[in-house]
Specification:
By secondary structure, the protein is an all-alpha fold. The protein is built from 12 helices and no strands.
C-alpha cells in the first residue's frame, strides 16, 4: 500500500481532488429538472453521466498504472481496454511499425482491447436501463468472443517481460469531461430529431456518425431512449451500429499507423466482427 501511495504523482492527486469536488460537492447540488428544447436538458443527469464515465476511466487508469504497466502486451491491453480501446489501437499500431517482429502480438493486444470494450458498453447501458441488457448480451458476447479468440490465437508465448506501457494521459481532464457532457447532449438531440423526422433510419445515421468519435455517449443516449421498453431491440441495434462504426475507425488507425502485418491481422478480426454485426442487425432489425 505504501508503494502505491508513493508512486502517485501530484498531477494524479490533483485529479483525484478535482474528481471528488465534482462528484461530492457539485453534482448533488445540480437541479434535477428538465430544461431547454424538448425538455432534454437535465443538469443532474448530465452531471451524473460525466461522473460515471469519469469514474470508469479513473479506475481503469490506475489499474493500468499499478497492475498492467510493463507486464505484457496482452495484460496491458486488457486493462487499457477499460479506458479506451481506441487509445490501445493507436499506441500498439505505432509500436508495431517500430518493432515489426512483434506485429502479431500487437495485433492480439488491439483485438483483446476491443474484446473488453463490448462487456464495458453492456455494463454502461445496464446502468441506465437494465432491460436493454438482454438485447445487447447476445450480439456483444459473440463479437467480443471473436476478438478474444483471434487475440488468443495470435499470442504464442508469454510477453510479460516486454515494455508495453501505454501512455493514457491524466485520468481526469475537466475540459474533456465537459466535452463529453456536450457530446452527450448533442447526440441526445440528434437521436431525438432523427427519430422524429426520419424514424428508425435516422437513428442509425446518428449512430454511425456518433461511433466515429465515441461509443459511450450514444450507448447512454439509446439506453435512456428505450426506458419505456417499447424500442429496446431498436435501441440495442443502434448501439451495435455505433460500435461497428467505431471498429472501422480503429481499423483505419491500425491500417495507416501500424505495420502491414498488424493491419492485415486486425483487418481480418475487425472485418469479421463488422460483417457479423451487420448481418445481425439486418436479421433482427
Amino acid at each position: 500500500f505504501r508503494s502505491v501511495i508513493s508512486n502517485i504523482t501530484s498531477e494524479e492527486l490533483f485529479a483525484f481532488i478535482k474528481f471528488s469536488i465534482i462528484a461530492l460537492l457539485i453534482l448533488p447540488f445540480l437541479p434535477n429538472s428538465d430544461y431547454g428544447p424538448e425538455k432534454l436538458l437535465n443538469p443532474f443527469e448530465i452531471g451524473s453521466i460525466i461522473v460515471i464515465v469519469s469514474l470508469l476511466n479513473f479506475i481503469g487508469y490506475f489499474l493500468v498504472k499499478f497492475v498492467g504497466a510493463k507486464r505484457g502486451i496482452l495484460f496491458t491491453a486488457v486493462l487499457g481496454g477499460l479506458i479506451s480501446s481506441t487509445a490501445v489501437s493507436w499506441s500498439y499500431a505505432t509500436r508495431s511499425k517500430e518493432s515489426p517482429e512483434l506485429s502479431s502480438k500487437y495485433a492480439a493486444g488491439i483485438s483483446i482491447a476491443s474484446a473488453i470494450m463490448f462487456p464495458r458498453l453492456v455494463l454502461l447501458a445496464d446502468i441506465f436501463n437494465a432491460k436493454i441488457l438482454w438485447y445487447l448480451a447476445l450480439p456483444f458476447a459473440i463479437l467480443g468472443l471473436i476478438c478474444l479468440i483471434v487475440a488468443l490465437t495470435l499470442i504464442k508465448k508469454d510477453s510479460s517481460k516486454m515494455n508495453t506501457e501505454i501512455k493514457l494521459g491524466n485520468p481526469l481532464n475537466i475540459l474533456n469531461a465537459i466535452g463529453f457532457g456536450v457530446l452527450f447532449v448533442v447526440i441526445s438531440y440528434a437521436v431525438f430529431y432523427a427519430n422524429r423526422f426520419f424514424g428508425e433510419s435516422g437513428l442509425y445515421y446518428s449512430a454511425l456518425i456518433a461511433g466515429l468519435a465515441d461509443t459511450d455517449a450514444i450507448t447512454i443516449s439509446m439506453a435512456k431512449f428505450s426506458l419505456e421498453g417499447e424500442k429496446l431491440r431498436l435501441a440495442a441495434n443502434v448501439i451495435l451500429a455505433a460500435t461497428l462504426s467505431n471498429m472501422l475507425v480503429k481499423l483505419a488507425i491500425t491500417f495507416f499507423k501500424g505495420s502491414r502485418i498488424t493491419g492485415k491481422l486486425v483487418g481480418l478480426c475487425y472485418g469479421s466482427v463488422v460483417l457479423i454485426g451487420v448481418v445481425y442487425i439486418l436479421i433482427t432489425g
